[in-house]
Design goal:
The complex is a heterodimer of chains A (180) and B (476). Chain A has helices spanning 3-21, 32-40, 56-64, 77-80, 133-137, and strands at residues 25-28, 46-49, 68-70, 86-89, 93-95, 100-104, 119-123, 129-130, 147-151, 156-157, 165-166, 173-178. Chain A is of the alpha/beta class. In chain A, helix 2 (32-40) packs across helix 3 (56-64). The longest helix of chain B has 21 residues, at 31-51. Classes of the chains: A alpha/beta (180), B alpha/beta (476). Strand 9 of chain A pairs antiparallel with strand 9 (279-283) of chain B.
Chain lengths: 180, 476
């Protein structure tokens, strides 16, 4: 194992620890298809999947399993999305310091996929992992995309009795598949 | 005599307020409120203490203080640069000199675009300018979507904490409120209440044509609008409606995008104790061609409302404030009376400084007195605002504006008397005698106001001077 790989393995483990602290669910070294199958539950469920080469295998596997797959390039995306059970995205960076995903939005990666469904599943690849927020900010593409969102665990509120409730407006569950 | 419920009710800027003493007394009667405040302060303070123990936080505070000081010093330049950057991204930029201008400008923008339904993410700036009222006057249906803000909007109340607006509401009160809305009994359980709110508000998001937000920061070099949230309503507000308007107080501008690497963790750790909140959203203008969501139009309204007038004055430091709320959580006065007693939109130590500065010394003149000057606020502030010092300076400004003959005469005589050893000794004897009859003493003209709520020190058998003379003449 090379020196650089070992350092990166440290990043994935740190990301997993921090994400767990923020009430998210890390999946270190697991198969994204298996994680997605578990998150989707019994078919048929509606699953939104961003248009991303890294998600194609996952999309076909879920379709074969009997789920309804919605993609941004399909005209049905906007109408189907509010009823989708799971939204699957990639990320542009994954910050080990805080267990944070940096999502960069464009035509193939809409804001809604990670926002409207109750469950958000993100697939992080080896090269996405960075140490700190500063490192991630340096990876925001130029020219600037219309929007970037940093996601750290599920949606939360403590507005009733100052006690934490998960999934108030955004997803109640955030699964992140990390390279093992 | 006013009541806590009356104080909680929504108030338009300039509406008359009962005197501070009555407001405080009313909230002290509210036992439920005091319990809720205790829980709130403990939770926030424990979480923050834990989060700021992490290594490197002291360095982060120094860096953040430097970034904010420079930002305030170059405020006008930074706002001008932000405007250029925002326009380059296709954002329409407006300037409002007063709160009323801002509210009218936004209402006008909304009307001109045929807006019928607006959703809002939490913004103290929109509270400051009473925006909902102005939108509603144009027949626009406005819905607050932060859970706490929605609770108080439905109750026709106003926020009592800058980051936990409904901290004064108990769960049974919220259950009653939501059950009335639902037209049936909801279970008195947090999960069910949140689910009800989420379901009601999701419909509002999908139907709205305008999203209104504030901003935690705007970066001058890139034109990036930054929102720091936890629930996700900020994301929905800026993703689904076709128009997004952000009301941005001018001091929110940061010189550089990279400053966020310092300011974001500083804010979240001091506000809720989180290393990062669930969501940090950065907006660079309207949706681009081919994109499926995001607003078609983005507007930024820069709000001055008394802020640039503070530049170059002894109160300039206050413009560094990033609204984390830490000073409220540590303040013994806020912890006892809660937010509504302060009267203005901004409570606690930051409010006691900001309200008189922004709304004039007349409206907020009593607020610098609503502090114990213990300095806990100055110590906790992530950007080093000397809040206690500013409060003392404000007390001075207020006092110098009120040339009260009687007060001056009293302090003049006092100063004269205590400059003379003989008169000092005499006054000590008289004062000590008077304390033997505390009920009488506290009704004397000057002591009446001061003595209320205070326990007079117990009388001693003899004064120090008498004791000293006796001891020297007759040593033991």
């Amino acid at each position: 194992m090379s020196e650089s790989t070992r350092v990166d393995d440290g990043l994935a483990a740190r990301f997993a620890t921090e994400l767990r602290t923020a009430d998210g669910t890390p999946h270190l070294g697991e198969d994204p298809v298996a994680v997605a199958m578990d998150a989707a539950g019994l078919p048929p469920a509606t699953i939104a999947i961003d248009d991303d080469p890294a998600l194609e295998r996952l999309a076909s596997a879920l379709q074969v399993a009997g789920h309804t797959i919605v993609r941004p390039h399909e005209p049905s995306y906007r109408e189907a999305l509010p009823d989708a059970a799971v939204g699957v995205t990639r990320c542009r960076a994954a910050i080990a310091d805080t267990g944070t995903l940096m999502l960069v939005f464009d035509a193939a990666h809409p804001r809604s996929t990670s926002l409207l469904p109750r469950t958000h599943l993100a697939v992080v690849e080896h090269d996405d992992l960075v140490d700190s927020l500063g490192d991630a900010l340096a990876r925001v593409p130029s020219p600037a995309p219309s929007a970037v969102t940093f996601v750290t665990g599920p949606s939360r509120s403590a507005d009733i009795e100052q006690i934490l409730t998960l999934g108030v407006h955004g997803p109640a569950q955030v699964h992140v598949v990390l390279p093992g | 005599m006013t009541t806590a419920d009356e104080l909680a009710r929504h108030r338009h800027p300039g509406d008359p307020l009962p005197p501070l003493r009555d407001r405080v007394e009313a909230t002290l009667q509210n036992v439920e409120l005091r319990g809720a405040l205790r829980v709130m302060a403990t939770r926030f303070n424990d979480a923050r203490d834990e989060a700021v123990r992490a290594p490197g936080i002291a360095v982060l505070k120094d860096r953040g203080t430097a970034i904010r000081s420079a930002g305030v010093r170059d405020l006008r330049v930074n706002v001008a640069r932000a405007e250029v950057s925002l326009r380059r991204l296709g954002v329409q930029v407006h300037h409002a000199a007063t709160g009323l201008d801002a509210a009218e400008l936004i209402a006008e923008l909304a009307s001109a675009r045929g807006v019928r339904r607006a959703v809002k993410s939490k913004s103290m700036a929109t509270e400051e300018v009473d925006l909902n009222h102005h939108l509603e006057q144009r027949g626009i249906h406005v819905t607050e979507t932060d859970l706490g803000e929605w609770i108080i909007q439905r109750a026709s109340e106003r926020p009592s904490h800058i980051i936990a607006p409904a901290v004064h509401k108990t769960r049974p009160q919220i259950t009653r409120l939501f059950s009335d809305l639902a037209g049936g009994e909801l279970a008195d359980e947090r999960e069910e209440l949140c689910a009800f709110a989420q379901q009601q508000l999701r419909g509002e998001f999908l139907a709205a044509d305008l999203g209104v937000s504030g901003a935690n920061f705007v970066c001058a070099d890139t034109g990036t609008i930054v929102l720091v949230t936890n629930e996700g309503n900020g994301r929905l507000t800026t993703s689904l409606p076709r128009v997004h308007i952000a009301l941005v107080p001018v001091e929110k501008v940061l010189a550089r995008f990279e400053d966020l690497a310092t300011m974001l963790p500083l804010l979240t750790r001091h506000a809720t104790g989180q290393p990062m909140t669930s969501y940090v959203t950065m907006i660079n203008g309207p949706r681009r061609e081919g994109e499926l969501d995001g607003p078609e139009e983005v507007h930024v309204v820069f709000l001055d409302a008394g802020r640039t007038a503070l530049l170059g004055t002894e109160f300039e430091d206050m413009l560094r404030c990033i609204r984390c709320g830490a000073c409220l959580n540590v303040c013994p006065v806020y912890g006892t009376i809660g937010g509504h007693a302060y009267g203005g939109v901004y409570p606690g130590p930051m409010g006691a400084v900001l309200t008189p500065l922004l709304s004039g010394l007349e409206e907020g003149r009593e607020l610098p007195g609503a502090t114990s000057l213990c300095g806990a606020c100055s110590a906790v502030c992530p950007v080093g605002i000397p809040l206690a010092d500013l409060l003392i300076k404000l007390r001075g400004s207020v006092a110098s504006r009120e040339p009260r003959r009687a007060r001056r005469l009293f302090f003049g005589l006092w100063s004269r008397a205590w400059s003379s050893p003989r008169l000092y000794r005499w006054s000590a004897t008289v004062g000590n005698r008077a304390r033997r009859w505390p009920r009488v003493a506290r009704h004397l003209p000057v002591a009446r106001g001061w003595g209320r709520g205070r326990t007079l020190p117990a009388a001693v058998p003899e004064t120090f001077h008498d004791w000293w003379r006796r001891e020297r003449v007759n040593p033991r």
